[in-house]
Design brief:
With 472 residues, the protein is an alpha/beta fold. It has helices at 20-26, 47-54, 70-84, 95-99, 101-107, 120-131, 175-182, 204-208, 217-231, 247-259, 272-277, 280-288, 303-308, 315-328, 345-361, 379-386, 395-399, 413-430, 438-450, 457-465, 468-471, and strands at 4-10, 34-40, 58-64, 89-93, 113-115, 142-145, 151-153, 186-189, 192-194, 212-214, 235-238, 265-269, 291-295, 331-333, 336-338, 365-366, 369-371. The longest helix is centred in the last third of the chain and has 18 residues, at 413-430. It binds cobalamin and iron/sulfur cluster.
Length: 472
Amino acid sequence: MSRKKILLYNPKAVFFDMPLALLSIGSMLDPNHYEVIIIDARVCKDPLKIIEQHNHDAILFGVTALTGNPLRDALDTTRFVKKNYPHLITIWGGWHPSLFPKQTLKDEPSIDITVQGQGELTFRELVFNIESKADLAHVAGITYRNQQNEIIQNEKRPLADINQFTRINYDLINVEEYFRLKGRRQLDYISSTGCFFRCSFCADPFVYKRKWTGIDPVTMVQDLEYWYHRLKFTDINFQDETFFTYRNRIKELAVGLINKGIDSTWAGTMRADQGARMSEEDFDLCKKSGLRRVLIGVESGSQNMLNWLQKDIKLEDVLLCARRCVERDIAVIFPFIVGFPNETDQSVQASLEMAKVLNSMHPDFTTPIFYFKPYPGSKITEEVLQAGYQLPENLEAWTKFDYIGSSGPWVNNKKYQLIELFKFYNKLGWSRKRTLLFPLQKMARWRINRSNYRWPVEKFLAEVFIPSKKLS
Ligand code: B12
Ligand code: SF4
């Protein structure tokens, strides 16, 4: 019996993380019955041709949709598919349709179904229902058009235990191609879904209702051991929201990696409070098992602001984690966000100060600074919407929503220029010493320490000598 094809699409974008969302849902289908074809527009030259090749015996076209630029290609390709292959049911899942279940359908007739939140069980059930042409009314976690063309949002699907899912089958993609594009044999891995915390700028509490589910460490070690021997990776990038949620889980993982001889470095996300609760021995164990980098969201250098953000961390915890990482030569990314509504200059200044302190502690510490933009689902956004702020009103407008490029609504141009100069000099000043650049690096530190950015000639020179990508 020939297998039915399931086409899964990752839109064009400029980064090369493995398409974990599509791998997660695709791995849930019985391979004896379905042939899952992942088309990643970031890595294949002519995605439309691949769709054309496979459309005849396919039953659906699934797309993963992240807010912002990737929506553009997601939209164009879905329109192309609906126009040319109307027999394919088009399904969008991921963060954007999780936040806009109905708007996405209302604005775009080429999309048939949106999926909200965790997708594994919903997708498997959807595929079964679509294939058997069954009613979708009982598939929890989706929004769809019924026969009367009404948009119906079904009941929500509670977060299911991730341990009952089939583990990701990396054979569904050409892993070597991702290794090549990344420039290293780095495996992307997701070990949990959701987060227990309540940060008022984040969409996670809205989508996952402060729930969390994670793969048990024994299974994780078995899984990683299997793929280590198959793929010969040398680094694991854990893409979880909060990888260090349970200290014992991480310790068991670390012991497992060591005992199984998995000779690979790894990186993951850690909250400052979680790092502070760990012992020195826990850090030693993680380092021994290959921990090379953590990402610790600092968000603000002002404790008052952190309290307002409901971040539930203390600045002392951030510094404690930083010191522990310095002692063990573990790199850290410390992201900040500035430009919250009504944020004072003092609060922004406190963030810049904290970024300076952290950056100066270790050449492998980085402190990216983002500008706050209100996003639905977060507590802050609800508040600014009530005060009259307007979000993009339709799907087209969301394709232009740009998180990174601009300063957001609450940072004026003068402040923006200052912060951008700070970012440049802070990064240059504290990065690893390079003989040729050393005089510029020294000058950058002098400027940072005095907040003096007049005549930024080093910026000009550095931009000439260092490719801008490395400085961004
Ligand atoms: C890796 C990552 C990136 C990578 C690449 C992203 C990518 N997907 O290609 C990079 C580093 C480039 C990146 C960049 C950014 N990211 Co990012 N990133 C992540 C991260 C850490 C992991 C994504 C992932 O692979 N998850 C694992 C998979 C399995 O989970 P999932 O995608 O949610 O998929 C599940 C469901 O959503 C659903 N599903 C998903 N797709 C589909 C499709 C179908 C058909 C179905 C049925 C179901 C389904 O089923 C899946 C299994 O349960 C997430 C946080 C997280 N843990 O999810 C943030 C996250 C996605 N990023 C986020 C943000 C804000 C950003 C940035 C704006 C950050 C910044 N300030 O620069 C940028 C810009 C992104 C852009 N618009 O261009 C937000 C998303 C907000 C949003 N609404 O889009 C997240 C959720 C972090 C957060 N809590 O705020 N990111
Ligand atoms: S910012 Fe991180 S810790 Fe806070 S709610 Fe979002 S995912 Fe959880």
